[in-house]
Design brief:
There is one protein chain. 17% of the residues lie in helices and 23% in strands. It is an alpha+beta fold. The relative contact order is 0.20. The model has no long low-confidence stretch (mean pLDDT 92).
Length: 124
């Protein structure tokens, strides 16, 4: 099992008094950026600002490092769509797949599957 993704979440700097909190993207090899967010403005459980270990579910966005995730040379969604978690994602834009209220265990599975994909598939 890979490292718990929650230990990789680092809060980005925000203006003093700003309640909006963002975690930095997790880069997975030369293939993916995985954005894992939680808080009042994201589809998370709970929808409050607490520590990463205190959430039951997160909002997750996936994109490729270069190009479009849904089609073309970097379009790997056709392969990833066979994963059990893929049905939870919708295409926000051709470059971005998003899922809301993804339970911790499922986010961990997505993270591990993307690590494995990046390990066995050379970049175009």
């Amino acid at each position: 099992m890979a490292q718990d993704f929650r230990t990789l979440l680092t809060e980005l700097e925000r203006p003093k008094g700003d309640d909006e909190r963002w975690f930095g993207d997790i880069r997975i090899g030369d293939w993916f950026y995985m954005s894992i967010q939680a808080g009042p403005d994201q589809e998370s459980i709970p929808r409050t600002t607490v520590g990463p270990m205190d959430y039951e579910a997160f909002e997750v966005s996936l994109q490729t490092v270069h190009g479009v995730i849904s089609y073309g040379k970097w379009g790997v969604w056709e392969q990833l769509s066979k994963m059990p978690w893929a049905a939870r994602f919708h295409k926000e834009t051709p470059m971005l797949m998003v899922a809301g209220e993804l339970p911790v265990a499922e986010v961990q599975r997505v993270y591990e599957d993307l690590l494995e994909f990046a390990r066995v598939h050379p970049v175009p």
